Amino acid sequence: MEDFTDAVVYILKLAQKYCFVPYHVENWVIILECDGAGLTDFPRKFVSKITEVTTTNFQSTLEKMFIMNPSWFAKILYEGAKLLLDPDTVSKIALLRKGGYKEMLDTIPID
Fold it and tell me: What is the pTM assigned to this prediction?
């Protein structure tokens, strides 16, 4: 997993160096497909590590995170966790079930 995490960071740093406009804020939209993964098969370590790395290296870049098809248990956990999170953070995270992708389509331009 460490090699994969390092590869993701390397690719993001390359994109930052060669694709981003200097001195402009970049807003990222992250899509995480869970495919109904439950608590036991959800890649918690990977998601935690990527979150830690991106928070450290790419601060204030998250525009929106869409978590697609979470399990019912993950949805219940998030509903409880929302009470402890900053409202700005909560507004950036959306859990979407199959067929409920309108919010994502409104955020990401089709063209």
Answer: 0.73
